[in-house]
Design goal:
By secondary structure, this protein is α/β, with parallel strands linked by helices. It is 40% helix and 18% strand. The chain contains 7 helices and 7 strands. A 7-stranded parallel sheet has the order 3-2-4-1-5-6-7, with helices on both faces. It starts with a strand and ends with a helix.
């Protein structure tokens, strides 16, 4: 059972956006998906409470206790959203479960510097090379100085850049209704689905 962890030490970088849409993609593919949240704010649980019952099922993963435990039997795929400031023992617990770690990163100099040490920590704490780590740029405009800065930063790390997701209100409107890109007509989110293709290939590999 693959466990996908979405992590970044900073808040507001798009972790919940990635987590919910990954879960939505997997559910649409027919998998038995659980979506959990280590953050005490439980944003994932709030999103799940808004999700219409007629859509592919995504089950909540109860992680309100102190110990991070594996999902119950019957789950085929799990997605774990994590809080800002994830370090130390808590990060170790999460990394014991992780098969893949996706790091969302915005192209600001502040986010880049905050993420640099975190990515190195991830690589040091992962269980060998079996745990894949990758980065996806969030709210990025191609052809801008900030996008070039992000690419230059990634050249200093041993992790792949899966691509950029644009800054669009599509994610905001969908999240407010418990939806993902895969729950609406493709024509409504065609550009966003195109940007997700490299990320989906990495998830499915």
């Amino acid at each position: 059972m693959p466990v996908i962890v979405v992590a970044n030490p900073k808040g507001g970088v798009g972790k919940s956006t990635l987590s919910t849409n990954i879960a939505g993609y997997m559910a649409q593919a027919g998998h038995a998906v659980m979506l959990g949240d280590v953050d005490r704010q439980q944003s994932a649980r709030t999103w799940l409470s808004l999700r219409p019952a007629n859509l592919p099922t995504i089950t909540g993963w109860d992680l309100t206790h102190d110990e991070v435990v594996r999902p119950p039997r019957g789950t085929t795929h799990a997605v774990l959203d994590t809080p800002a400031g994830l370090h130390g023992k808590r990060l170790d617990e999460v990394m014991k479960l992780a098969d893949k770690v996706l790091v969302p990163l915005q192209p600001s100099i502040f986010d880049i510097h905050a993420t640099h040490a975190f990515v190195r920590e991830l690589l040091a704490r992962r269980r060998g090379d079996k745990v894949s780590v990758a980065i996806v740029g969030m709210r990025v405009r191609e052809g801008t100085i900030s996008a070039d800065q992000l690419r230059s930063f990634l050249e200093t790390l041993q992790v792949p850049l899966l691509g950029f997701l644009r800054d669009t209100q599509n994610y905001v409107h969908l999240a407010a209704r418990g939806l993902t890109l895969w729950d609406v007509a493709p024509s409504r989110v065609e550009r966003d689905l195109e940007q997700w293709q490299p990320l989906l290939q990495w998830l499915d590999a």
